[in-house]
Amino acid sequence: MSASRDTTRSPLEPSATSRRIAAFLIILYASIAFIPMVLIVSTAFKSVTDAISYPPKIISEPSLEGFVNLFTQRTRQSAEYLETLPPPKTWYEEIVRKRNMVIAGPSRFIQRFVNSIIIGFGATFFSVFFGTIAAYAFSRFRIPLKNDLLFFVLSTRMFPPIAAAVPIFLMYRKLGLSDSHLGMIMLYTVVNLSLSVWLLKGFIDEIPKEYEDAAMVDGYSRMSAFFKIILPQAATGIAATAIFCLIFAWNEYAFAILLTFREAQTLPPFIPTIIGEGGLDWPAISAATMIFLLPVVVFTVLLKKHLLRGITFGAVKR
Amino acid sequence: MSEVKIENVSKQFGEINAVSNLSFTVNDGEFVVLLGPTGAGKTTTLRLIAGLEQADEGKIFIGNEDVTQAQPAKRDVAFVFQQYSLYPNYTVYNNLAFPLRSPLRSLSKDQIDKTVRDIAKTLHIEDKLKNKATHLSGGEMQRVALGRALVREPNIFLMDEPLSSLDAKLREELRLELKNIQVQLGATLLFVTHDHVEATTMADRIGIIKEGTLIQIDPPEKIYNDPNSVYVATKLGSPKINVIPSRLLNMELPANVEYTAFRPEKVSLNSKGTLDARIETIQNLGVEEIVSMSFMGEIIRAVVKPESISKSDKDIKITIRKDDMLFFDKESQRVYL
């Protein structure tokens, strides 16, 4: 038998061994990265007692106590008073009653969650909207001082945004923008704009300008050429940019804790304030964290097919 | 269809003169080809007529109307681009219907549908109408691009090397089709290319353009037989026209004649010839042969029938009739005797 080499594979493709090593490394990394997620989800479904038991329980009786505690405010009552009450009507009253407590009303979690949605998605929308039109202009028109302007846009990202915290705090207080949805949307939009302009300019540069030329000769204005041809072509870039903008606006903590406290408070500063009885209520915090993670996960999954090309933007030239 | 006239048009991009002082007219129903190398200003000329560039100087008329300042959409011209021309997010049908759906043309759905299907038939792409524009071969894409121009009846068709990205066989096919369609429609057409075969096979008139200036614009036969400069003479014909210093010919010529040119097919090889040459290489093209000869340090090419030369004899004699010679001065401009 001749020692023939495997020639079915192109020399440019990785060998089976290197594929296996790559797969192993990816699985290893994914597992490590997944541990916090597992901890969050498993703790969210533990009872308060199981969550702080020692030695820690990996598998425990599933409980919705964390979620009930997250969505309600409760008061502790004496055993005599509880006996006078009629039996609990709902499953969540039952969970609370076991801890000698009654439900006093809903918690502020939902309102904070709605704040996060309004501010996160609002800021994402405006970052992408202004980013797209600015990027189009930078990409297509002869603008005086174009390169200087682009550098200026980028330079706003050269220091951490929080470095400007004090002036922004004072400015917002004077303008009455503190603790308002509008104020937070404006702030996150401004911080995200440099990223969005630069990312989107890259994407729009890749779209041949012959498309608009053709559309304009075919009897359309530049505006309708933009909407009919360029925008659908830029969808990938817009989706990728939107995800990056949302992740920043959704997770932002420093400005949120500085500028919001009641009306416009978002989840990142709110979650650490969930305090239980005699210590932190870990199941409630985990439940909040889990719900907090969901929108970004859903948004990313929805835009997934655009994202991969988005992340490797510039690498694929037509 | 309309006549299109360009008057003293100039266009600069920064330091570069893309087009300088250009004037010519494309008559109603005429097929004009602008021929020149890359960077000669051909595309810029088309873009100026379409309104995609603004002229720095000069005027552009379409059908006697001054459109120098008009928006591209208002000029009602059709443009076929070299590449990237199809809208990738649309199907072939929608690509063809796109110009008809413009707010400037209020056409009914049925009218649009009929026009699109007629054109698709003419171009043999009727079974591709539902395809995505990106799911087509190169030839089909260029057909659709032509179709998108042909669905309308514009003042003029502007075509920017629409065939250059295709392979040779397809190019030849579409060249014929395009010429046929133009004749059928009586269309006014300005076509830009660097391929002299495209120019001679399709054009009613050829404009030779060099560095943004029009050197000569005339029917193909006149460009071929009666060029006004060495540059124009070398533009048509393959193999290229022979250009040699006149003093080598030992003829009586006016003092200002510096160069003499003659077409390879006008060189005859026979024993009675007056000039001594030596065969260097012979290229066989089947029906004919290209013979490269050295003649007093210059290369002369001749196109001859294969049987007319003996393969063994390297040293031969050649004749060129004086009537077949073109004479040029030291600025390479034509001298008429």
TrEMBL record, chain A:
This is Carbohydrate ABC transporter permease. Residues 113-303 form the ABC transmembrane type-1 domain. The keyword Thylakoid does not apply. CDD domains: TM_PBP2 (cd06261). The chain crosses the membrane at residues 21-45, 117-138, 150-172, 184-204, 225-250, 282-303. The keyword Cell membrane applies. Belongs to the binding-protein-dependent transport system permease family. It holds the Pfam family BPD_transp_1. GO terms for cellular component: plasma membrane. It is a multi-pass membrane protein. It is found in: Cell membrane. Keywords: Cell membrane, Membrane, Transmembrane, Transmembrane helix, Transport.
From TrEMBL, chain B:
Residues 4-236 form the ABC transporter domain. One of its GO terms (molecular function) is ABC-type transporter activity. GO terms for cellular component: ATP-binding cassette (ABC) transporter complex, substrate-binding subunit-containing. Keywords: ATP-binding, Nucleotide-binding, Transport. InterPro entries: AAA+_ATPase (IPR003593), ABC_transporter-like_ATP-bd (IPR003439), ABC_transporter-like_CS (IPR017871), ABC_transpr_MalK/UgpC-like (IPR047641), Mo/tungstate-bd_C_term_dom (IPR008995), NA-bd_OB-fold (IPR012340), P-loop_NTPase (IPR027417). Gene3D superfamilies: 2.40.50.100, Nucleic acid-binding proteins, P-loop containing nucleotide triphosphate hydrolases. It holds the Pfam family ABC_tran. This is ABC transporter ATP-binding protein.
